[in-house]
Write a structure and sequence with these properties.
Elongation Factor Tu (Ef-tu), domain 3, single chain, alpha/beta, 234 residues, Rossmann fold, 5 helices
């Protein structure tokens, strides 16, 4: 059984499409601190807990957000899917080591699949708001165009920050899709090839398959393994 749980009130449970929900919460009473990229362990039943990456920056506290893929239909997604504004949830304080690193990188390449975008979104916010104008590039892999969201935010960042670029990569695009049609691995490797290896960092979050493929591909081109940071969801 978890101890020292924090109470948060549900502010919003937004279904953005058939696959994803965005949930916003506000801490009640005691507050916690965290580093961008960390996760909370959320109570979803009696002695039942699930991990969810924070999709917001520490500056947003006492409000915080998560993005959830509701299609698995397990106890965690079932619990979160039915939450309504005003209800209360319990979590641990944030934890985890998947955070932005001060490693001297001038180019930061981020690769996500599915709701692996959750910790990368606030990482991008932090990078773009920082004093160092690093080149930041995101590749986000989804299956279908119907799963796309956050285009408005990402598009605004791309317009406002010349050092930011992103591509949504569909593995099973519908007819008429004019964007990238491949996999995150190919996009990350191509971008690394255009960058200085000793001044580049790679952050990966999502499926174990994607993380494994990217790391293996980077190893083949002698990319420094200590400049690859990752979090696997499944």
């Amino acid at each position: 059984m978890m101890t020292n749980l924090y109470q948060s009130k549900v502010l919003e449970n937004k279904q953005v499409n058939q696959k994803f929900h965005q949930l916003k919460f506000k801490l009640q009473g005691d507050t916690f601190a965290f580093q961008t990229g960390q996760f909370v362990v959320l109570k979803v039943g009696e002695d039942l807990y699930r991990d969810y990456s924070l999709a917001s920056t520490p500056q947003a506290l006492p409000q915080w957000e998560i993005v959830v893929d509701v299609t698995p239909g397990g106890p965690g997604t079932t619990y979160l899917k039915q939450l309504k504004p005003g209800e209360t949830v319990e979590t641990t304080s944030p934890r985890g080591v998947f955070t932005l690193q001060e490693d001297g990188a001038e180019t930061v390449i981020l690769g996500a699949t599915g709701c692996g975008i959750s910790p990368l979104k606030p990482m991008i916010e932090e990078l773009l708001s920082g004093s160092e104008k690093k080149k930041v590039c995101l590749f986000w892999g989804l299956r279908y165009g119907s799963e796309i969201f956050l285009e408005d935010i990402l598009g605004k960042w791309q317009k406002d920050y010349p050092n930011f670029d992103f591509k949504i990569v569909l593995s099973k695009p519908e007819a008429g899709w004019e964007g990238e049609s491949s996999h995150v691995t190919e996009c990350v490797i191509e971008m690394v090839g255009k960058s200085s290896k000793d001044k580049t960092s790679v952050y990966l979050c999502g499926s174990s398959e994607m993380v494994y493929d990217v790391r293996e591909s980077l190893a083949k081109i002698d990319f420094p393994h200590d400049k690859i940071y990752f979090e696997r969801y499944f």
